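testing teh design pipeline on a random one, pls ignore if ur not involved
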């Protein structure tokens, strides 16, 4: 099964080797037909502490690294 890849913005880099990435998704409301934005935060592994707050990154699913961390950062400035 392929690993999921998501794109988001780093909202916190205070932890060691971990960044918190906010991923936003848009979907159409089934009744009102308007587009709604929903966001979710993921803890992602950043081995070299190279990503800072505000960076646009891509994260990939991986084997669990800790209780909350099962994603890893794979790319900076994803557009």
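output:
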């Amino acid at each position: 099964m392929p690993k999921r890849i998501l794109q988001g913005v780093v909202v916190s880099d205070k932890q060691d080797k971990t960044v918190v990435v906010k991923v936003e998704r848009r979907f159409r409301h089934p009744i009102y037909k308007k587009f709604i934005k929903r966001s979710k935060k993921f803890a992602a592994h950043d081995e070299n502490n190279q990503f800072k707050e505000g960076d646009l990154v891509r994260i990939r699913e991986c084997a669990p690294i800790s209780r909350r961390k099962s994603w890893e950062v794979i790319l900076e400035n994803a557009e």
